[in-house]
Write a structure and sequence with these properties.
The complex is a heterodimer.
Chain A (H helix, E strand, L loop, with lengths): L3 H13 L5 H15 L1 H23 L31 H37 L1 H15 L3 H12 L3 H28 L2 H8 L4 H38 L10 H9 L7 H28 L1 H15 L2
Helix pairs in contact in A: 2-11, 2-12, 3-4, 3-11, 4-5, 4-7, 4-9, 4-11, 5-7, 6-7, 7-9, 9-10, 9-11, 10-11
Chain B lengths: L1 H15 L5 H6 L5 H10 L6 H15 L12 H36 L4 H15 L2 H15 L20 H7 L3 H38 L2 H8 L4 H13 L1 H24 L5 H10 L3 H29 L1 H4 L6
Helix pairs in contact in B: 1-14, 5-6, 5-9, 5-12, 6-9, 7-9, 7-12, 8-9, 9-11, 9-12, 10-11, 12-13, 12-14, 13-14
The chains are: A mainly alpha, B mainly alpha.
């Protein structure tokens, strides 16, 4: 149990323990629980590797992802081309490395639009109530009563097929999920004793929202966010696979799978490896999301908290 | 009902913001301007949005007419009727497989927590939810069809039989054509297993989590303290309470199954609604798109209804009119 980094961490905490902010304390505990979970750490490593590839992929790729050389058509995996080449002789490995950014970016952009929209709308619905709540929730119901992928297909077809439009379409269908989540959470938190105490102390409306209600809505949002990264990446790839997303010659993973599909029985590596990359990325986000959920789960947390406090001697 | 109207408005809104000119696309590249104009008139494309919706609803409720597809030139209702059984067969078998395997696996996994079988089923379910549907479909196609040659991977049936209902398995039984039955069944396996694997993963996770929560509850401890046999505790007390979240998830999941059929029907050359929808979206075939979404919305409403009925069967609190927490 006594790994060197942890000892460093605990000694630092011993020095800081007087000044430790409650939020920092909670964060430290969360990190501690996360570090104890092997699966969460595997997930985190996968996620970090793919984020690294997404940022530096074009620098470390051995070939230019769009370099066409017909004489190298459908080369099976060899030492020069570790994952083979596709119908235009492009190196599949390089294309996967350069394609990581599209998938990661799609996930981040979609959620960067959907999550704040959901927080604002759900917060308004939950805190104001009345007819505004009614209107927002009925619109949300319409969206949620329908398979998101089919709706996103229709939207991206309406906007015209491109990766950007696919991301916009996915954001358009993804916000209702967060609206409902935040509304439920806001309703629950509003009734708690500590909010009542804050009101009786004469806290202003904004203090209430930003200091008491919002921070307490954050942990389910964080969990859903991490798990949803995987979902959005799959959905974006599925849209590209159906031809509603990225267009050639973009080396987006879903697009690569669909381009290689016709040659599946002739050259399996063209479509199999990009799909494996998607699966691995999504697996990473799922493992990490599960880990974060367990780490934020109050029941499991209290058990570990005791051990943690012993370690850093509060 | 309000949900159907809402979805309808949403879809019309999407159709309305389409930058492409659908009439021009339908008329073909060599159409004269007056022909394009005539098409526009015919489909009320020049009218404002609310009038288009009004015309559509009028046709739907007075004549039970979903309009005529702009690309196949047949009534959308007939097209959907022809394609619906194939999709339903696929989704239903996948659903059945997912439930039959997923729920018991989740329960066993929770009962044998941290044992070998628990780890096994958790890995299976994680892989299931993480693998993109279109990729696992291609993988199975490559391995089981191309490499091993065990199962056919394209189409729905290779022999001709008389179609009574459109459901291949049912029709071949009615025809007493066992060759067609085995053929249809074999062709059903790959797509439905792919679809089921995905749903199953999710189901195992939910069932396991909910079962674990119930096992820690006070009434299970109480039942144990009373000395009831384990079998009765687990299956009568725990499972009955733990099964409610998975049922909720299944109701929502049926919609995802339908979305999955769009992908799978394209890959397995399965002549169903999903492929029809994907095609009509590419061709901007508005009546077909709206018709398809109507059917999906209807299926979703029915599945929600079934979920509600299932609640009331399992949970007496719902039956007497109380609210589910």
């Amino acid at each position: 149990m006594k790994s060197p980094p942890f000892i460093m961490l605990s000694s630092r905490y011993r020095i800081l323990k007087k000044r430790l902010h409650p939020l920092t304390k909670e964060f430290g505990l969360t990190l501690y629980v996360l570090r104890k979970s092997l699966l969460a750490m595997i997930g985190a490593s996968i996620v970090f590797i793919f984020i690294f590839i997404a940022i530096f992929g074009s620098l470390i790729s051995p070939y230019d992802p769009n370099e066409i050389d017909i004489s190298f058509r459908f080369y099976a995996p060899t030492r020069e081309h570790p994952l083979g080449t596709d119908k235009l002789g492009r190196d599949v490995f390089s294309r996967i490395l350069c394609g990581a950014r599209y998938s990661i970016r799609a996930g981040l952009v979609v959620l960067a639009i959907a999550v704040p929209a959901g927080i604002v709308l759900g917060g308004i619905a939950g805190l104001l109530g009345g007819w505004i709540d009614e209107v927002i929730m009925r619109i949300t119901d319409v969206f949620l009563s329908f398979p998101p992928l089919i709706l996103a297909m229709a939207f991206s077809a309406a906007l015209g097929p491109s990766l950007f439009n696919a991301m916009m379409a996915l954001s358009l269908v993804w916000w209702p999920l967060y609206t409902r989540l935040v509304r439920g959470q806001a309703l629950a938190v509003r009734e708690t004793l500590y909010v009542e105490a804050a009101i009786s102390k004469g806290a202003s409306r904004w203090t209430l929202i930003f200091r008491h209600i919002l921070p307490n809505c954050l942990s389910p949002i964080l969990v859903t966010f991490t798990l949803d990264m995987g979902w959005v990446i799959t959905a974006a790839a599925a849209l590209s696979f159906l031809g509603f997303g990225a267009q050639p010659p973009l080396s987006e993973w879903g697009r690569m799978v669909t381009d290689g599909r016709i040659y599946l029985f002739q050259a399996w590596w063209v479509s199999m490896f990009p799909g494996l990359a998607i699966a691995l990325t999504v697996l990473g986000f799922n493992l990490l999301g599960d880990g974060i959920r367990d780490a934020l789960d109050p029941k499991l947390r209290r058990i570990t908290e005791v051990k943690w406090k012993e370690k850093i001697r509060f | 009902m309000p949900v159907i109207i809402g979805v309808l408005i949403l879809i019309f809104f999407i159709a309305y913001v389409i930058p492409a000119d659908p009439a021009r696309a339908w008329a073909g590249p060599r159409a004269r301007p007056d022909q394009v104009e005539a098409l526009r008139e015919r489909y009320h494309l020049n009218d404002p949005l609310y009038l288009q919706i009004y015309y559509y609803l009028k046709n739907l409720f007075l004549h039970f007419d979903l309009g005529i597809s702009a690309t196949t030139h047949r009534p959308v209702l007939n097209d959907l009727k022809a394609f619906f059984p194939a999709t339903f067969e696929l989704a239903f078998f996948a659903f059945l497989l997912a439930v039959i395997i997923g729920v018991p696996l989740g329960v066993i996994s929770a009962l044998k927590r941290n044992k070998l079988i628990d780890h096994f089923s958790r890995v299976i379910s994680l892989v299931g939810v993480s693998t993109p549907l279109f990729w696992s479909a291609l993988l199975l196609q490559f391995l089981l069809y191309f490499k091993l040659g065990w199962l056919p991977a394209f189409g729905r049936l290779s022999v001709e039989i008389h179609r009574f209902t459109g459901f291949i398995l049912l029709d071949s039984v009615l025809n007493r054509n066992w060759v067609a039955f085995t053929d249809g069944f074999k062709r059903l396996i790959l797509p439905s297993v792919t679809l089921a694997f995905y749903t199953m993963g999710y189901l195992v996770r939910i069932t396991r989590g909910s079962m674990l929560e119930v096992l820690e509850s006070e009434y299970v401890t109480m039942a144990k303290a009373k000395g009831l046999p384990e079998r009765i505790i687990y299956y009568r007390h725990a499972l009955k309470n733990a099964i409610i979240p998975p049922i909720t998830v299944l109701g929502i999941n049926f919609g995802w199954l339908l979305a999955g059929t769009v992908l799978l029907e394209t890959i397995f050359a399965w002549p169903g609604m999903g492929r029809y929808a994907a095609g009509s979206i590419i061709q901007v075939d508005l009546p077909a798109i709206v018709g398809y979404t109507m059917v999906v919305a209807l299926v979703m409403i029915i599945s929600n209804l079934i979920v509600d009925i299932a609640y009331s069967i399992i949970d007496p609190r719902v039956r007497v009119g109380g609210k589910l927490q």
